[in-house]
Design a protein that fits this description.
The chain is of the alpha/beta class. The protein contains four helices and four strands, in the order βαβαβαβα.
Length: 141
């Protein structure tokens, strides 16, 4: 059976789209080829790496990419994980289904590292829940 493909897009591909990529790859790599990109590329957020490590998921080898690298590819799903990316992301002609899952940007959080980690964990858990819902609703139908 041919795998489906999913591309997660965020503003900088540093946090939310990276976490979504890691979750979907971890939970359904047998069904999906999973990618992520940003409107621009930036370094993968160290606090995102840290909160994912807390639940046993290693993102240290993931890299931030600009969405331009994927323009000529086909995807079963293109999923934006923030409203800015949803508004500014160009049309991908090879996309079967496009969805927007707007999550708060944990990188915009302020305070001590521990206060910021609370926000990162909240967004991480929301993304995990949304991936699980996606797999139940979209794939198992």
């Amino acid at each position: 059976m041919k795998k489906m493909s999913a591309l997660f897009i965020c503003t900088k591909n540093s946090c939310r789209s990276q976490m979504a990529e890691a979750f979907l790859r971890h939970q359904a790599s047998d069904k999906f080829d999973v990618f992520s990109a940003g409107l621009e590329a930036a370094k993968v957020d160290p606090l995102a790496i840290k909160v994912m490590e807390e639940i046993g998921m290693d993102m240290t080898n993931q890299e931030s990419k600009n969405l331009n690298v994927y323009f000529n590819q086909r995807f079963s799903y293109l999923i934006t994980v923030c409203d800015k990316a949803n508004k500014q992301c160009p049309i991908f002609p090879g996309v079967s289904i496009r969805e927007n899952w707007p999550f708060d940007d944990p990188a915009a959080s302020t305070g001590t590292e521990e206060e910021r980690l609370v926000i990162y964990r909240k967004v991480r858990d929301e993304i995990k829940e949304r991936i699980e819902q996606f797999l139940t609703e979209e794939i198992n139908d």
